[in-house]
Amino acid sequence: MENTPRTEISTLGEFGLIHHLTKNFELQHAFSVKGIGDDAAVIDNTGKLTVISTDLLLEHVHFDLLYTPLKHLGYKSVVVNLSDIYAMNAEPRQITVSIAVSNRFSVEALEELYEGIYKACEYYKVDLVGGDTTSSVKGMVISITAIGEATDDALVYRDGACPGDLICVSGNLGAAYMGLQLLEREKRIHIENPEIQPDLSDHAYIVGRHLKPEARRDIIAAFSTAGLQPTAMIDLSDGLSNDLRHICEQSGTGAIVYEKQLPIHEDTFSMATTFNIHPTTAALNGGEDYELLFTIAPDKVDLLQDIPHVTVIGTIQDRDSGILLETNQGKQIDMPAQGWNHMRKS
Amino acid sequence: MENTPRTEISTLGEFGLIHHLTKNFELQHAFSVKGIGDDAAVIDNTGKLTVISTDLLLEHVHFDLLYTPLKHLGYKSVVVNLSDIYAMNAEPRQITVSIAVSNRFSVEALEELYEGIYKACEYYKVDLVGGDTTSSVKGMVISITAIGEATDDALVYRDGACPGDLICVSGNLGAAYMGLQLLEREKRIHIENPEIQPDLSDHAYIVGRHLKPEARRDIIAAFSTAGLQPTAMIDLSDGLSNDLRHICEQSGTGAIVYEKQLPIHEDTFSMATTFNIHPTTAALNGGEDYELLFTIAPDKVDLLQDIPHVTVIGTIQDRDSGILLETNQGKQIDMPAQGWNHMRKS
Which residues pair with B51 in a beta bridge? Predict the structure, then answer.
């Protein structure tokens, strides 16, 4: 960054800054009635239900700017919110973005962040309709609210799973977690030996899954085309083990997951082995995959052939049977639980 | 706090904490279809437009816990967002609340914060429908999104003011700012002489205006009853001078404000004098009043008699005439502008 121009945020002021960063964001949807620039945004969802999700991301807790390019951070911050809207079987339409930054950040740095936000808005066809820009004493805070819409009969909650339903997952599991482990290791090496530059090109898949995840819009679209309505759904942000627990608790059920069915990418498997982490542990407890975990009635199984990248990994059971993992050795054990790390680390 | 019980947040974990803090929040509205506990909240605004506003509040930037009771902070954090919704002439219906806290805060401290949030939800009849709880390395961050509804013809934007319109303001100006100055002074005295306990009881009005502001729901209700539709409106968060500028810029107009018309409470006046601050400066540039600044067509002036606590302070003019203050001495000067302090301070 040393040779790039640096404009102090204070030269623009709050309103100048918002205008500067968002001037290229044009509203794409007629139903985004009013965007940035008033007390509130106005949305016309008449005839449909409004779906709202919000996330708060803090530097040093949720992201590390040592290895996270700001453009990717902007992109990812949007994607993780959209993922929540898709997990309702709804369509995201708008976002609001609030950021707090210290004067350590230049206008150019924020431009990069907003370039990523812009890319995500463009790719997922959502309008940036509001937000707030303020200062922080130290570090960066990003708060994003995503707004979507759905018809009442399309919405899928976490509480609709029934015993006998098949447990399905999109894509593969644990890749983002192994990407994060690799980045953290390279960071430690670089701090100890600043002359060593990490070469991550052999590990582009897992690093990309951490730095630039995508939300599974394609799966939601395929549900609609196939006429498949999941009975329950959640996006995998806290790891399969935690997120399946949410579905089971809210549906009042148990579940069994088959270890041999867990979809794990070969690069995830290989990096887990390098780190002496059991690949199943990465798949069960690694967070931030942003894949969809959903359940379907057993008589709908034929419709799955029209949904790409989906694996059946288990079955919903009665609550009394608990939440189980059947290992590759055929033993049924309690699903390994992992607490919420963010709070424990602090 | 030394004799009160202290429960570490880590004993509850993220999901336990959210549940613990929000278990008394019941949805009040049938149109809040789904609240906390899924990927997103679901709102039925079918037939009306959805209005969204969001704010990000950081400790040491937007609030100081040395003199801000957590319960008041929770209450105020909600109110400042609702104020934005009312400023659209809309009705707030739901909020989402995300907080980030370090382990310096106990569960009991967060309970106090949520007690204030609860009081505001109860008083303003809004449902808490979602949010996020996470850790911070240091300090507290609060992010609130307010969701409201309005019919298309009721909404009032910032861009509808026309030359000749009357500029009106609810309540009085500068009180919250003088309350803040007093609290900051007492804080400095207390830090230098810890044995001196501030007695703020003589200044309850201005201190209350800073610590526990209210949003002007009553004015919005009176508009509806009186059949008065403002041409433009904004809530006063950044000070009259800044906020009037927003209306003028977006409406493409100028304005003239009469110093002698500015409504200033006697306690504000007296404290400003004590601080050697011109009371007009407090009224023009003091932020966080959360009063409504609005414009009405001149032929609607008779309807103002049905709107309580409103003062006509000036007139919208052509853009070319600029934004002027006519002083008590009859001189017309450029409205004193004040930049955005939050970013400059950092």
Answer: A42, B148
